[in-house]
Design a protein that fits this description.
- The chain is α+β, with helices and mostly antiparallel strands and 709 residues long.
- Helix content is 22%, strand content 33%.
- The protein is built from eleven helices and 39 strands.
- Strands 3, 4, 6, 7 and 8 form a five-stranded antiparallel β-sheet that branches. Strands 21, 22, 24, 25 and 26 form a five-stranded antiparallel β-sheet that branches. It has a four-stranded antiparallel β-sheet with strand order 10-11-15-14, with no helix packed on it.
- Helix 1 runs antiparallel to helix 2 and helix 1 runs parallel beside helix 3.
- The protein is elongated.
- The chain starts with a helix and ends with a strand.
Length: 709
């Protein structure tokens, strides 16, 4: 029983104390047992409880130590352990099984050079922590140091979205792929999702990279990871990386609105855009907007910075009259948005003129910038920029026979200002090519519209002042006569000169010189209306561009004018005939009316007197006349100057039957008129009296009066 107690106490002390401390404790235990005088079982139990209680109150054993290298090529070994204590004066003794003397440290880590360690066979390692008189020993662990590698925690972590995959990159611990464990979640309330991934090693960046698939790129994430080597037998996991906030992807480029305000020699540009989604602005850095322009980056620098970074959604800058491009991108910790390019077009003078003098050797001062732009595909492309930095380089950029638009800028109060712009040719030449696609449309018998494609700027080789549009009439009859006359003159001999001169006189128009009629069309136009052509005639049409060096190649077109439209001729003839007919009809009508009055005078019409309106003064006279009629006689007064002797027999007496007939016919005015005409023509054919009055009276009071001249 005594042997068992001693064994237990020894085992306990061997577990928790130093060698020298164990000897002192053994003596103290024996003295205590002798003093108490207890029996053997009670003394063993008391000793065990005493040592267990004292050691639990004074010391807590540290964790087992880990000894390792940071990578396979390292010659430095690190040992680490941990201990849960609040004491500051703790001393740690690190033991290796092959070494009797421990290494003492005041911290929970230690470093050793490879030369002082046994690396290629297994060794036991433990740590004893001493707090005052108390000592605590860790659990022993067996390792082969050369095969134990523990990386540092991942650092300099960068993330980037690619479709729905999250690419994670960090600095590599060694030149070999590693194994990584990635934890991620959308927010603190969600559980962690875990992925174990093999990394890829990139030699140019000395970095590890992996992709976490099937994530939502429009959502922000919290990510942490750790890694270990794959080339040793005893890899240790590194510590966890700091928590990384991954914002959502900036999938679309910014929609930028531009406002331009014209100033003297410059323009004020205001750019405004909408802020990005809040998920894309997650993280400590949030989102930043980066702006740059082609003026500053190209050397025409009025500002100290080439780029501008802001967290606002508005930016104001000043630019010159030459074309400027602004680029705007949004950037967060997961990447950048597509670049938004804002093109500010050039502000050209409406009356752009050629440059008056050579500009390549113009003196350059400290605040000026000269630019030459080439017009290509409707846009200005920068060819040369003369600044202090490239004062010798730009000369080789300007070519002969190439047109440029020249701008001269100054920096005034840190703002660019355009002071000159003009057209520039280092040397001029005639156009290289003729106008292309010469064609006609809207043809009539005497006019046609010509159109062509303007000569491209790169083929003009000089200042294009205008186009020459010329026409030459080629008659088909003249062509036939020329050929016939040429054939006949070859057969002429000396004795047939008379016949030769006959041909020459007959076809004299053949020897007339061919005259070309030309017109100038402004260089800004590519269309011309040609008038006053001859119907059914062949013309040779040419169009050529003209520069200061002369006229270039000609575009040629053969034109056959149309005949006069028959329908148009008939319409014109019909209108002329209708006009002549109406005119002749009017003239003939006037002539006929004049002749009719002279040839056929109008017949007199007997008036019907309305006796109801006569005055009462004549009433008695009518009554007297009625009495005569009542007697049944109708008398005709003798003509003036008549003697009444021998002519009494000639007086016609009307019978009562005739009076009755007359009275019946008197009711019809037309019958009365006919009767009066007949009686006048039969009975008085030779009367020459100036005034003659014949009265017909009857009882009813109807009177017919006819006066003839």
């Amino acid at each position: 029983m005594t042997d068992l107690c001693v064994l237990l106490s020894y085992t306990h002390t061997h577990t928790h104390t130093h060698k020298k401390t164990r000897e002192l404790l053994s003596k103290a235990k024996l003295e205590l047992m002798e003093t108490l005088g207890w029996n053997l079982p009670l003394r063993c139990i008391a000793l065990l409880l005493m040592f267990t209680t004292s050691s639990s109150k004074e010391c807590e054993a540290p964790s087992s130590p880990q000894c390792f290298r940071r990578n396979r090529e390292s010659n430095v070994y690190n040992c680490e352990w941990s201990m849960n204590t609040t004491h500051r004066d703790v001393t740690y003794d690190l033991y290796f099984s092959w070494c009797v003397t421990p290494w003492t440290f005041q911290e929970t880590r230690a470093q050793f050079n490879a030369e002082v360690l046994i690396k290629y066979r297994s060794v036991d390692i433990w740590v004893e922590a001493r707090i005052g008189e108390s000592a605590c020993k860790s659990t022993e662990t067996s390792v082969i140091l050369s095969e134990t590698v523990k990386f540092e925690a991942p650092k300099d972590i960068s993330v980037a979205w690619f479709q729905n995959h999250l690419n994670v990159t960090w600095i590599a611990a060694e030149k070999y792929p590693a194994l990584a464990e990635v934890w991620f979640r959308t927010n603190e309330t969600k559980p962690w999702e875990k992925r174990l991934k093999d990394t890829e090693f990139t030699h140019n960046k000395m970095a590890y990279q992996l992709a976490v698939e099937n994530l939502q790129k429009r959502t922000s994430y919290q990510v942490k990871l750790r890694h270990h080597t794959k080339v040793t037998h005893n890899p240790l996991w590194s510590e966890w990386s700091p928590l990384v906030i991954v914002p959502a992807e900036l999938e679309y480029k910014l929609e930028v609105n531009v406002t331009l305000n014209q100033l003297e020699g410059a323009r004020k540009v205001t750019l405004m855009w909408k802020p990005v989604h809040h998920a894309a602005a997650a993280g400590l850095d949030g989102v930043a907007y980066i702006l740059s322009d082609t003026h500053s980056s190209g050397g025409c620098l009025c500002k100290k910075k080439k780029t501008h970074t802001t967290n606002r959604t508005e930016y104001t800058d000043y630019v010159s009259y030459s074309p400027v491009n602004f680029s705007v991108i949004a950037r967060n910790s997961a990447g950048s948005s597509p670049t938004a390019i804002i093109q500010i077009p050039e502000e050209l003078s409406p009356n752009l003129k050629p440059c008056s003098k050579p500009l390549a050797d113009k003196i350059l001062n400290g605040t000026s910038c000269y630019e030459w732009y080439k017009l290509q595909d409707g846009d200005l492309r920068l060819v040369a920029r003369r600044t202090k930095r490239n004062i010798n380089h730009f000369r080789n950029s300007l070519k002969d026979y190439v047109g440029y638009i020249y701008f001269e800028h100054l920096c005034v109060n840190e703002r660019p200002k355009t002071v000159q712009m003009c057209l520039y040719y280092k040397q001029e030449n005639v156009p290289k090519i003729a106008p292309q696609d010469l064609s006609t449309f809207n043809e009539t018998h005497n006019s046609v519209t010509l159109s062509w494609k303007a000569i491209p700027t790169e083929d003009r080789q000089g200042f294009l002042t205008h186009y020459n549009v010329c026409r030459v009439q080629i008659s088909s009859k003249d062509e036939y006569n020329r050929e016939y006359l040429t054939h006949m003159t070859r057969r002429f001999t000396a004795h047939s000169l008379v016949f030769y001169f006959f041909f020459q006189y007959t076809y004299i128009d053949i020897f007339k010189p061919i005259i070309s009629e030309c017109n100038s069309v402004p260089a800004s136009l590519a269309e011309y209306r040609m008038e006053n052509l001859t119907p059914v005639t062949k013309y040779n049409i040419t169009v050529a561009g003209v520069t200061g060096a002369g006229e270039g190649p000609k575009a040629t077109l053969i034109l056959n004018t149309q005949p006069i439209n028959p329908m148009t001729g008939w319409w014109k003839l019909g209108l002329i005939m209708a006009f002549l007919f109406i005119f002749l009809s009017v003239v003939s009508s006037c002539i006929w009316k004049r002749m009719k009055k002279k040839i056929l005078p109008p017949l007199p019409n007997p008036p019907i007197l309305d006796f109801s309106s006569h005055e009462t003064v004549n009433q008695e006279m009518w009554e007297e006349k009625e009495e005569v009629v009542h007697d049944g006689t109708l008398q005709q007064l003798p003509p003036k100057g008549h003697t009444g002797g021998g002519d009494a027999e000639e007086t016609t007496m009307l019978s009562k039957m005739d009076i009755k007939r007359v009275s019946d016919d008197a009711r019809n005015p037309s019958s009365i008129q006919q009767a009066l005409r007949g009686s006048t023509e039969e009975e008085m054919p030779n009367m020459e009296q100036e005034d003659m009055l014949a009265l017909l009276q009857y009882r009813r009071g109807l009177v017919f009066d006819m006066k003839t001249d």
